Amino acid sequence: MEPELAGVPHSISPISATLLLAAAVSLALVVVFAPQRARLSSLLMWGVGGLAGMAAIAVAPSLDLVILLTLAIALLHAALAGRRALAARLRAPALAVALIGVGLLFARFDGPPILERFAAVGLVAGLAAALGVLPYIHEFDHEELTTASPVAWIAFLGPILGVVVITRGRELIPEAGAAFGAMLIGLGLLNILWGSLASWLTEKGTSAWHYSFMADWGLVLCAFGIQVADGQAAAVLILSGILLSRLPLYLWSRQPLRESVQTDRPINLLAAAMLAGAAPFAGFAARILLLRGATQLYWPLALVIAIGLLLWLPPSLRLGRTLGVPRGRQAVGAGVTLALSVAIGLYPQPILSLAGL
Amino acid sequence: MTIAAAFVAWAGAAVITLADGRRGLALGIAVVAIGFGALAFANGVWLGGAALIAGGAVCAVQLARTGSKDWGLMPPGSTPRMILAVIAAILSLWVAASVTTGPGGSLRFASVAVLGLMAARLLQAQAASPVLIAAAALAIALAGASGIGDTQRGLAPYVLGALIAAGASFLPVREPRGA
After folding, report:
1. Which residues of A touch B103 (CB under 8 A)?
2. Do B176 and A87 touch (CB under 8 A)?
3. How is chain B split into domains, by residue range?
4. Could you give the ipTM of this predicted complex?
5. How high does pLDDT run on average in chain A?
6. CB contact at 8 A, A248 and A210
7. Residue B80 burial (CB < 10 Å; 0-12/13-18/19+)?
8. What's the mean pLDDT in B52-72?
9. Residues 140-159 of B with CB under 8 A from A
10. Strand boundaries in chain A, DSSP class E
11. In chain A, N or C: fewer CB atoms in 10 Å?
């Protein structure tokens, strides 16, 4: 029996609750240590709005309501002033809703078992379109405000939406679970390769950050596709890393990127190490868990992922430099982010316990 | 009755696919809402059906009374879109009647056809109005499709779908601006 909220039954998984908490901490970090020229009221208003939308998605009792809520969020997000046309802002998330909706329909139809596989295709394709990962990368304008840009989907709304669609989707298509997992792993490997190479080689610094989110999502998709406890734990840690480390650093790097400032101070190297998932940061623990999970499933997969992980180093060094030399509040913010990541990396159990893992 | 309602829903989606003008799009969303509303009535979800029709009506009226008063139905070069609408109907009919089994074939046909056509419209359209109306029709179709299957999902999807459809037409269309 599900608990009721204002007469509507609801359920929230421990993983969703954990990520919701991480998103709230991320928003607090970004607002408290906001860059001087940031539009604080806009950041706070849309951040709290996004958080409310994520909470609604997390507690929604059915996938029908989840995708309808996603469509509502997409419409409100598209109404924000941005540099891209409204059609470009709305197209990808609305298409994602349509694809997940088709997947949902096929999961509910009575008929031959292959319908569940079609449902899996719809769910995975819709998820990729919602997040903005390969094969549906959202149109990105490097000058656009972060709140109005696709980064809001891939880095802020995406973690909760991804977890909810994957966990509920898996329950809907139990007989196609293996195909669903295989598609997630395939898509994940593709995004690891494309995201890390593009983040390294692309010309614009903001685009490099955008691609780095894609690469991280590649790891998350692989981790969820593995379907063993270590994989789920790795996914939670990587998603927490996106929210607590990569997103705040991206926002703080916007101003130095505009001013074309690049520095090689110790703080930049530490940030690069954190982004690359080096020890003792949280990304390292996540990568160890991911490799252990992949080994349990099929050891050559662990080998492929391990080779893919090496691709994180060059783009992370590049992204670390774009942070410039943080001063004042931003220096404190960068320090807090690094400390949080070290704490999670050294002792990830509290987060994993909170996520029920 | 349900077969006619499913056909009406597809016809509305076809009009949205074929129209570029605001009146044409308003007609399309109204017809989609009537089709899914009637299907909900046939399933015994009276309040849900009424909500969908009301949401579609608000969206259509708001769209028709603001902006330019053109229909824009089947502008030159829309032959591919017409072929798409017909092929979507044939494929959806095949899925609903031949591939899948069980009761509710009309709702299956309408849901697959409208979702497929609206996904295509989202990918094809460049202007704001067709994309917003495609999203509104998507909301109505998803709400209507919540009636598929054995589990009762209550009124919430219908009410939320109707609110999204109605609200989509009120969104301020702000076009590109600097960072």
Report:
1. none
2. no
3. 2-168
4. 0.95
5. 92
6. no
7. exposed
8. 92
9. 141-143, 145-146, 148-149, 153-154, 156-157
10. 4-5, 8-9
11. N
